[in-house]
Structures are given as C-alpha cells and as structure tokens.
Amino acid sequence: MKKILYYTALAFCAILLLSLQACEKSNLNTGNSGTGTGGSLARFTISGNYLYIVDHTSLKTYNITNPNNPVRSSTQYLNNDIETIYPYRDKLFIGSQSAMYIYSLSNPAIPVFESNVSHVRACDPVVAKDNYAYVTVRSGSTCGGVVNALMVYEVGNNMEQPILHKTIDLEQPYGLGISHNTLYVCDANKGLKIFDISSPQATNSIGVKTGYKFYDCIPYNDVLVCMVEGGMVVYDITNPRDPVFVAKTF
Amino acid sequence: MKKVYYPALIALMLGGISCDRMAPKRDAVWVPTYQSKAEATVIKALPAKALITAGKIYAWGNYVFQLEPNAGIHVYQMENKTPQPYKFIQVYGAQEISIKDGNLYTNNYSDMVSLDLSNFDQITVKARIPKAFSIGQDNLPPERGYFQCVDTTKGIVTGWKKESNIEATCKY
C-alpha cells in the first residue's frame, strides 16, 4: 500500500513538473510600467499582450493591447474544478483538483489544448530555476494527495522526463519563490522555510522564520513579500539566505 | 401563467433545479443575500483601511497589493521596504488581480474590469466585460437542498445565509 502511495505521489509530482512556472517572481520591476508579479494561486495571469482567466469551467483569453477595450479572442471549456493558471514558455498550465491541462500558446490569442493528465491532484505550485524545478505537494481536503513535501527535480530541456533528486518532508507547504540561490517555501504554521539551492541536487535547509502562518511569498527586488494569515509580512532579502524582518501590515 | 412557469422551466433545463410552488415552510433553508446592481458595480478609491481577511498578493512598481476577498484591493506604497497603507480600491466580489502598464485587471463579481491606476485618488473603470469570470456566481447555495429561489430583480446575489420558517421553492 505504501508503495502505491509513493508512486502515486511520484506521478503527481512528475505531472506538476510539466507545469513549471517561469521564475517570474524574481524579475526586477521598479518602474510603474510593465507587468506585475503575482503569487502562485492566481486565476488571472498576463503573458505578453494577453490576459488569461480561468473560472470554474473555462479558460478565456483577452487581447489587452487596448485596455479600454479588451477583446476576447478565445474561450475553451474545461472541467468544472479548475483552480490555477500559469504560463511557462509557450504553454499554459491549468491546474484543477482532478487533472492538469496543458495548452499551447504557439498562437497566444487562441490557446490550443495539447494534453491533460487526470487521476492526479494538481493544485500545488511550482517554481523553477535553470534546469531544476521545486515543487510543493500538500495534502488536505482541497488538494487531496498523501504527501507533504518539497521535491527537487532536474528537468533539463526535456520536461517530460524529470528526475527526482531530493524529497524534503514538510508540514503543510503552500506557495514558494526563488531569489538567486535561495528558495523560500511557505509551510503554513511551521513558518517560512529557507533552502540553499546553489547545488540543487543537494538542496538543504538553512533556516526558518516563524511567528506567522505563511501561504505565499513573492521575491520582489530586494524584499520578500509574504501573504500570511492576517495580512502581509515583508523581509529584506539583500542577503537572500538571511531574510531580515522589516515590517508587517497588521 | 406563462410568465410564472418559463423561469422554472429554464432552471430545470439548466441544472436539475426543481421548483414546487406549493412547498411548505421549512427550517435551515438557504436564503440569498442581495446587493443592487447599481451598488455592486461602484468601483472607487477609498482611504486605506484595515484588512480583515488576507487574500492574494501582487507586486507592481512601487506598490504591493493584497486582496480583501469580495470587498476590494488594499494598496500599499513601499517606503524603505515597508508597505505603507495607501488606498483601498472598492471592488465588490474581487478575488483576482493582475497588472500591466498601469492597468489593473480584476473581477467585480463575474465581470472582468480594467482599472486605470494613473491616479490612485480617482480610479476609473476603463472597460467592463460582463460574465467573464464565474466563480461562486452560479446562483446556487453552498450546499445541496432546498433554497429560496433567486430573484434577479432584487440584484446580485452576494452570499447565502440559513434561515428558518422559509418557503423554499427551489432545490438542487
């Protein structure tokens, strides 16, 4: 039984890898133009001149070249338990409670269904840097699953054959983010877990910040903005390995 | 008579919602709460206020944003790496946020709206796309069973509460 669960978890993660989220979170953005940076649970995402929206049942694409007149260029109907959307390279990955849908953005105006993988629970976020992907797997009523862990995969150029290099048990991991060679994982009540990923295959814990219930973090320039129960907490990550508390909004 | 049965027929076709016009009064019935459409669609900048429920976060330029689910968007200005409460953008039903080139895209219940951020004192709606985002907008209560039928002439359904001694004529 244990083995079955293990392989289920493995399959689950492998599929999640297909959903690599570009490391958008570490993009610099100091001016008031350009596209902003969101967390990993979004249902709205902007890629290029297009806004992609997923509600419970559909994926809608809007051309937002003219913000006074967003023009819908496509509607795709999906299953009825859609939760998240994220673009990576020329694909859109749509997470639902029962499957992962992959759409091609070869033509960004009209995403085209490529494939879907069912029998997995796919609502956990992924971040990537270079040829490695960092995935959190969280069990619970919404996400299903049986494992609570951070998993490190080598993805190379062939995203369909990821290699699992490391599994680190966690309590209840939600969102994550990367700044340089440091990975932040929001482990709810257990705190903000900090990992050194300078050698991804040897990803190791280098610290934890506690005191809040962490849900998601956005590395943004030299700060880390975290969504926690009650509001936001900000850390200075001038030294990414050593986040220093700066402020909270509550 | 036609007028009475037509909506019921549509409801039946749409999702197996059944209506019994002679239904007795029941307890623990889901009753919709309404907001007038005129009120629900008012989007405006308000002074900063305290957050009640932490929603999704977003960063853009020198600002960070946090959703107050179903009520709007808290705007903070970053000063010395510290978010200073700046504005609250009232957007009823809001759950999502994405920004490009000074235009904020969010949902006002099931409508998608694009907001002009060039003046935070005077947020203007540049565009409104009805029915772009149907999350929790199914006009159905949180759980199956009897419920008081939705009367769309009363406005937008903003939530549900359980009440007793209600003539519940709808069920799903």
How would you portray this structure in words?
Chain A is mainly β. Chain A is built from 1 helix and 21 strands. In chain A, the strands form 5 sheets. Chain A has a 4-stranded antiparallel beta sheet with strand order 2-3-4-5, with no helix packed on it. A 4-stranded antiparallel beta sheet of chain A has the order 6-7-8-9, with no helix packed on it. Chain B has 2 domains: 2-37 and 136-171, no CATH class; 40-129, Thrombin, subunit H. The longest helix of chain B has 14 residues, at 2-15. Chain B contains 2 helices and 16 strands. In chain B, the strands form 5 sheets. In chain B, strands 4-8-7-6-5 form a 5-stranded antiparallel beta sheet, with no helix packed on it. Chain B has helices spanning 2-15, 37-40, and strands at residues 18-19, 25-26, 29-35, 44-47, 57-60, 63-68, 72-79, 82-90, 97-100, 103-108, 111-116, 124-129, 146-147, 156-163, 166-167, 170-171. In chain B, β9 and β10 form a beta hairpin. The interface between A and B is large, with 50 and 43 residues.
Short description:
The complex is a heterodimer of chains A (250) and B (172). Chain A has 250 residues and is mainly β.
**Tally of discrete structural domains of chain B:** 2
Low-confidence stretches of chain B: 7-16
Residues in β-strands, percent of chain A: over 45%
What is the strand content of chain B? over 45%
Average pLDDT, all residues of chain A = 80
> Biggest sheet of chain B: strands, sense, closure?
5 strands, antiparallel
Structural class of chain B: mainly beta
Question: What fold name stands as the CATH topology of the largest domain in chain B?
Answer: Thrombin, subunit H
SS elements, strand count of chain B = 16
Just give the CATH class of the largest domain in chain B. Answer: Mainly Beta
N-to-C CA distance of chain A: 46 Å
By CATH, the architecture of the domain at 125-250 in chain A is named 7 Propeller
What oligomeric state do the depicted chains represent?
heterodimer
Number of helices of chain B: 2
CA radius of gyration of chain A: 18 Å
